[in-house]
Amino acid sequence: MLRHLMALFVIALLALPGIASAQDVRPPENAANVDTPRASTGGAQTLQDVLRRQQGLEVDDSFRRNNIGGDAGTAPGLGPLGGTSDAEQWRALRYNEADVRVTTLNPTGKVLVQDGGMWWLDVRRGPLLTYGGWLLLGTLAILAVFFLLRGRVRVEDGMSGRTVTRFKAIERFAHWMLAGSFILLAITGLLSLFGRKVLIPTFGHDFNSVLLTGTKYIHDNVSWAFMIALVMVFVMWVWHNLPDRTDLTWFRYGGGIIGKKHPPAKKFNAGQKLIFWSVIVLGASVSASGLSLLFPFDLPLFGHTFALLNDSGLPQAVGFGTLPVNLAPQEEMQYAQLWHAIIAFVMMAIIFGHIYIGTLGMEGAYDAMGSGEVDVNWAEQHHSIWLEKVKEDELRRPAE
Ligand code: HEM
Predict the structure, then answer these.
(1) Residues 136, 144 contacting (CB under 8 angstroms)
(2) If you measure from the C-alpha of residue 301 to the centroid of ligand 1, how many angstroms do you get, rounded to a whole number?
(3) What is the per-residue pLDDT for 396?
């Protein structure tokens, strides 16, 4: 019995320091301000370091920053890491002291780890995917409901069999170059954004890696076709897309939905003008941010834009406060990536609507971009002012 009591006593004595040290790690009230001697963690970070960093306070990390091995790594006769340990190698990367070699000539490309990227990573793999995905699915659902309720817009008097030229070959070439490149960019862009979330869990890392190497190649190179086509379309159609009074009538009739009467329109009606300007403005913006991403660190856009916005007082007025203007090169890239993706999502949603109208939604519309010839009754119904003008021009032309 006495022996058992003695044993319990000894165990209790041994456990005491353990209990005491377990209490020590609980953060005191002002933990961030209390200094624990570095030696107490065996040279690692202290609780105070962690708390200070969480509070955004200055942390003296020289004990880690300087603990990256030295030149023992190059000593002959040692293993692949030389005298450097894995931990030291990672710390060197963490503090941009490692001997990193990259293909870009810009020294900023050698920064592989930076704290400022965490919020961006969270937004990119969180809300960007969620809201972007729902925007596209929601748009498809709305179009499906609209189709079920409204059905296909028919040519009321039926097809006449007589046609009129709506778009010349060069216009159709530019349109299809714009459309083809946009669709490729959209698919490859979505694949690289959703790769980690969808492709890796479904098909594995190897598949994702091979596919995304290809999609990146396509995305980066096809972008030039998109930009060239955007300029062509702008130059050819801007004149017909300037707003005028017929647009007010078009809006009053809701583009023909209200009152089921087709409002008179010139070459492009107000709805098409909205599509045109969306494509031009958003297309230019997605191109600019894309170029900034294509030439990393060489085309910074956001610091300057934020400064202009701050001067206008807009961000402050809508509750965003003053936007940051002194952006690190990496931060520039992060903003460029998010902006590029957000604008691309909005464009895709708009283009879904456009493709719907050009194919399923309206009888006779596709021919305008297919053969370039539209039925006269279709033209009379949807673009009566334009048709009149074409007829007048025909009459004025001397007989061949
Ligand atoms: C398969 C996809 C597409 C189809 C079937 C299609 C069809 C059409 C058609 C039929 C027109 C002529 C409408 C008319 O006669 O008034 C048109 C015009 C136009 N398309 Fe497309 N399109 C497609 C994709 C795209 C894409 C991806 C873009 C831009 C990124 C685009 C931009 C435009 C613009 C700016 C116009 C002139 C404005 C308008 O008519 O709305 N199209 N398209």
Answers:
(1) no
(2) 30
(3) 81
Half-sphere exposure of 285 (CA within 13 A, CB side): 19
Residues 342, 129: contact at Cβ < 8 Å?
A: no
Domains, the chain, in order of start with CATH, read 31-117 (no CATH), 119-396 (1.20.950.20)
Question: 322-351: per-residue pLDDT in tens?
Answer: 999 999 899 999 999 999 999 999 999 999
DSSP conformation class of 116: G
In our burial notation (b when 16+ CB lie closer than 10 A, e otherwise), range 232-265 reads bbbeebeeebeeeebbeebeebebbeeeeebbbb
CA-280 nearest atom, ligand 1:
35
Cα of 148 vs centre of ligand 1, distance in Å, is 22
At 357-389, the pLDDT tens digits run: 999 999 999 999 999 999 999 999 999 999 999
Let me know: does 320 contact 310? Beta carbons within 8 Å.
no
Are the beta carbons of 327 and 114 closer than 8 angstroms? no
CA atoms of 153 and 2, how far apart (whole Å): 99
| Protein residue with least CA distance to atom 25, ligand 1 | 179
Q: Pick the residue whose CA is nearest to atom 34 on ligand 1.
A: 276
**What pLDDT sits at residue 75?**
53
The preferred substitution site among 176, 354, 360 for testing ligand 1, maximizing ligand atoms within 8 Å of CB, is: 354
Rounded Cα gap, residues 135 and 352, in angstroms: 11
Ligand 1 atom closest to residue 367's alpha carbon, by position in its atom list: 10
Residue 211 in tokens:
């596919």
Q: Do residues 214 and 242 make contact, with C-beta atoms less than 8 angstroms apart?
A: no
DSSP 148-217: HHH--B--TT---S-EEE-S-HHHHHHHHHHHHHHHHHHHHHHHHHHIIIIIHHHH-HHHHHHHHHHHHH
Calpha distance 270→240 (Å, rounded)? 11
Beta bridge partners of 164: 374
Name residues whose C-beta falls within 8 Å of residue 258's C-beta, 6 or more positions apart in sequence: 252
CA–CA separation, 245 and 394 (whole Å) = 25
Return the SS3 of 249: helix
How much distance in Å is there from the Cα of 382 to the middle of ligand 1? Answer: 15
Centre of ligand 1 to C-alpha 179, Å, is 7
> Cα of 134 to ligand 1 centre, how many Å?
24
